[in-house]
Amino acid sequence: MDNSGKEKEALAIMAEADKKMKTTHSRLGMFFGSSSKVEEACDLYVRAGNMFKMAKNWSAAGDAFCKAARLHLQVQSKLDAAVNFLDAGNAFKKSDPQEAVNCFCQVTDIYTDMGRFNIAAKHHISIAEIYESELVDIDKAIVHYEQAADYFKGESSTSAANKCLLKVATYAAQMEQYQKAIEIYEEIGAYSMDTTLLKYGAKDHFFKAALCHFCVDMLNCKLAVQKYEDMFPAFSDARECKLLKKLLDVYEEQNSDAFAEAIREFESITRLDQWQTTMLLRIKRTIQDEESDLR
Questions:
Q1: Do the beta carbons of residue 138 and residue 130 sit within 8 Å?
Q2: What Rg value do the Cα atoms of the chain yield, rounded?
Q3: Checking phi first, is residue 136 left (phi over 0); if not, alpha (psi -120 to 50) or beta?
Q4: Which residues, other chains included, contact 94 with Cβ-Cβ below 8 Å and sequence gap of 6+?
Q5: How confident is the model at residue 28 (pLDDT cuts 50, 70, 90)?
Q6: Stretch 120-146: mean pLDDT
Q7: Whole-angstrom distance, CA of residue 179 vs CA of residue 42
Q8: I need a labelling partner for 126 at 20 to 30 A (CA). Which of 25, 223, 261, 273 fits?
Q9: What is the pTM of this model?
Q10: 187-233, pLDDT tens digit by residue?
C-alpha cells in the first residue's frame, strides 16, 4: 500500500473512532460504564496515528495520538495518556516543534503528578533539546535543563543532574551570566574530585570556572586558581592550570601577543573546544581594548 492508500485507511479509522465517541457522548455513556467504548476509540486513534506515521503525515499522526491521550485522561488512564502524548510529541518533532513541546510538557506533568521524577526529568531534557536546536530559545532550554537537574538531584541521580547543569553553565557563560556558571562548575568540580571515576575530569570544571572568573576580573581569577590548587592539589600539575598562570602573567603585562602565543603553545598538544576558545577571545579582547585606550 502506498502512502496515499495508508492515509486513506488512517482517515477511515479516524472517522470510525470519531463516530464511536459521538455515540458514547450522546448516551452520556462516558459517565455510565462505557469506558470500554472509550478504550475502543483510543485503540482506533492509535491505529490511525501509526498509519499516518507510515504515510509520513506527521501532523495528522500527532493529532491522532493526542486524541487518544485526551480520552485516556478523561477516564483517568494516566500512564496510557503519557504514552500517547509521547508518541504525539515524537511525531510532531518532525513537523511542528512547538506542538511537540506542548505534548512533552503534558508527559512531564503526568509523570510529575505520579511522583516518577526520573522519567519526568528525561522528558524535560527532550523539551530542552527542542528549544536548543529547533526553536532556538536558549532561555527556555535552560529552564528545562534546570528542572531536569532538580528532579534528578531529588532522586539522587547526581551524574544525570550534573550533565544537565553543565549545559546550563555552558549557556550561562555564553550569555555572560558568569556567576551562575562559576557556581555550577565549582560545585561539579568539587563533586568530581571526591569521586574516584570522575577525579580526572575535575580539572576541566575548575579550568572553566577560572575562565569565567577571568572574564569578570583578573584578580578574581588569580584568587580562584589558588583556591582550586588548595582544594585539589592535582590541579597544580594540570596543563590547564599552567596555562591560566601564564595568561595571568601576560595579562598583567597587557601583552596580547604573548597571550595568543601561550594559547598556541597549549593547543600544540591539547585542542581547546569552541566554548573555551570563545571565553579566551573575550579575555584577549579586554587586553586589546586597554591597549587602544592607552594610545
A1: no
A2: 27
A3: left
A4: 58
A5: very low
A6: 95
A7: 50
A8: 273
A9: 0.83
A10: 999 999 988 888 889 999 999 999 999 999 999 999 999 999 999 99
Q: Which residues contact 200 (CB under 8 A, 6 or more apart)?
A: none
3-state secondary structure of 267: helix
Q: Are 48 and 14 in contact (CB under 8 A)?
A: yes
Copy the grid coordinates of residue 238: 594540570
Task: Mark out the alpha helices in the chain (DSSP H runs).
Answer: 3-26, 35-54, 58-74, 78-92, 97-113, 117-133, 138-154, 158-174, 178-193, 202-216, 218-231, 239-252, 256-267, 274-294
Question: At CA 84, angle to CA 83 and CA 85, rounded to 5?
Answer: 95
Task: Read off the C-alpha cell for 63.
Answer: 493529532
Beta-carbon contacts of residue 96 (< 8 Å; ≥ 6 apart): 58, 59, 62
Q: Are 244 and 207 in contact (CB under 8 A)?
A: yes
* Lowest mean pLDDT, pick from 9-13, 68-72, 187-191: 9-13
* Helices 239-252 + 274-294 axis angle, to 10: 10
> Does residue 146 contact residue 164 with C-beta atoms inside 8 Å?
yes
Task: Specify the DSSP class assigned to residue 269.
Answer: T
Residue type, 143: V
- Which residues, 6+ apart, have CB-to-CB distance to 193 below 8 Å? 199, 202, 231, 232, 234
**Side-chain half-sphere CA neighbours of 184 within 13 A:** 25
* Secondary structure class of 163 (helix, strand, coil): helix
- How far is 5 from 8, CA to CA, in rounded Å? 5
Q: Which DSSP state fits 270?
A: S
What confidence score (pLDDT) does residue 2 get? Answer: 56
Residue of 255, 260, 253, 254 lying closest to 281 (CA atoms): 260
